[in-house]
Amino acid sequence: MNFFRFSLFCSSCFVLDSKRAAIVQVFKDCGATNACFVSSQESNGKFHLARVNNANFRRYLSKFKLEHFQAIFPGQDERARDYFRLFQLLKELLDIANTWKPSQVQIARYEQAAEEFRCLWVGSPPNAQLRVRALFGTSKFTPYCHHLVFHVPQVLKKYGNIIPFACYALEYNNSRNKKYYWNTSKKDGTALVQVMERILRVTFNPFSDFFPFHCPIDSCRFASPSGSGLTRHVLHSHPDSEEAEDEEDWLTEDEEEEESDDDDDDDDFDIQSEIEDHEVSSEQNVTENDDDDEVEIVNSARTDLWQTLDAAS
Amino acid sequence: MLLFDGDENRATLQQQMSNLNLELEKLCAENYRIIDPVSQKQYKFHLLLSSDMKFLVTLLGLCGPTDDHPCFLCDVIQAQLSSRSAFENDVLPREHVANPSSSAARSDFGVRAESILPPSIIDWSDVLGDVLHNGLRVYCTTWDEIFELTGATGKENTRAINLLVLQNSLIFSSRSL
Fold first, then answer.
1. Closest C-alpha among B98, B76, B57 to residue A145
2. Chain A CA closest to residue B1
3. A180-196 pLDDT per residue, tens
4. A234 within some domain
5. What are A104-148's pLDDT values in tens digits?
6. Inter-chain contact A155–B134, Cβ cutoff 8 Å?
7. Is A115 a member of any domain?
């Protein structure tokens, strides 16, 4: 608590101008728990946003309110409304792009929202019926914006889905490998070998199949080898059970601890929740269909795995 | 999986991708088909390349987002990056534009160096963007532009702002204690 009082004292020593205080208030209301703002030498000492990870920025997008932007742009209600609309559109675009197999209606809505996003960013052309003032201008339209507005709908139409080509799993592996790398011994010069050995130990552990984590509901057959996705499964599939109420209490405490313990300096993408969602959805399909065929398929796959392991040994 | 200790620059990638290129060329010679020795099942592959823009630019030998042709999927020029009419009428995808055999064609469309991947393996139509980094960068760019417009840039009060935001995490940690 003393450290907490010390930080309050330090922050009260500085006087913030109103606009910066309004920007800080946005992120405080969104529940930002880490140092979000940086003035680094790479950006010529400019004040900019840092430490954004996937879970946080999509969570913030859903928590922005019109009052936040009215505080940043006082006395300019139309402008504040435009900036708020811009972030709403960005959230809508990313929600559709992160939907597993979006429908044709959603893809059409994506194109409409992308066009509105572009018009807000660069302004509408002079012959348009509804004139929109440019928020940033054409010179600030980056190649990433170009890709989000023009090319993502093309990929959605061609392949029907863009999540497999996103780098969620790769970035999750990257953060995990970094964690493993800093836990290795650097004496022998075999740090990468140790990382690979640990990955093999964790991901191809055969004993996790023998002792999985079962669902606490007796009638349910859900089982997770590593235990991941179990709490989400209980919350989604058995929301009225006593176990779900306990899990909700645990989940809130865990989230708070994770947010307070996050100390990495690099971009750290939280893919675990995305993976768990897909795991849960796939497992739910299995539990809903009570046929024995799928169990037989799983058993035959396991026997195939053991045959390959025997052959390899 | 390919793990190496080094920076993400062209020289390191060229060195580390050499072994992977050999395997990919072998796969290409087998017409992208692999037979499982246990179950005797035949699997057919279609290779797609998806990554963030910096890695793709380094891998494919492009010049980057400040070039005249900044997009890695089409030949749009820098001035028409936000124009929908130009995109629908004038711009062509790279698969139609650049099979850069001659050096003149290569320099015209922002291809400044040889691709690290062998050209027989990856076609331009198989290159895709990544929506994760895309969303992150657009979000950060938007906030940076708002900082510029409001005049909130400058480093003098950054420490105070970070301390204000850090109070949230301190409240959480004091609760857990």
1. B76
2. A196
3. 888 888 887 888 889 88
4. yes
5. 999 999 999 999 999 999 987 766 766 778 888 888 899 999 999
6. no
7. yes
Do A27 and A72 fall into the same domain?
Answer: no
Q: A24 and A117 share a domain?
A: no
A120 inside domain: yes
Domain of A265 in residue numbering reads as: 205-296
Is A148's Cβ below 8 Å from some Cβ in B? Answer: yes
B159 reaches A (C-beta below 8 A): yes
Looking at the fold, whether A47 and A70 belong to one and the same domain comes out as no
How far apart are the C-alpha atoms of B147 and A134, rounded to whole Å?
Answer: 16
Give chain A's domain count.
3
Task: Tell me if A28 and B175 make a contact (CB, 8 A cut-off).
Answer: no
Is the Cβ pair A49, B53 closer than 8 Å? Answer: no
Name the residue facing B128 among A13, A155, A269 (closest C-beta): A155
Q: ipTM score here? A: 0.83
Q: Is residue A4 part of a domain?
A: no
Other CB atoms within 10 Å distance of the CB of residue A212: 14
Q: Which residues contact A270 (CB under 8 A, 6 or more apart)?
A: A53, A54, A55, A56
Query: Which chain A residues contact residue B151 at CB under 8 A?
Result: 19
- Collapse the DSSP code of B115 into the 3-class scheme (helix H, G, I; strand E, B; otherwise coil) and give the result: coil
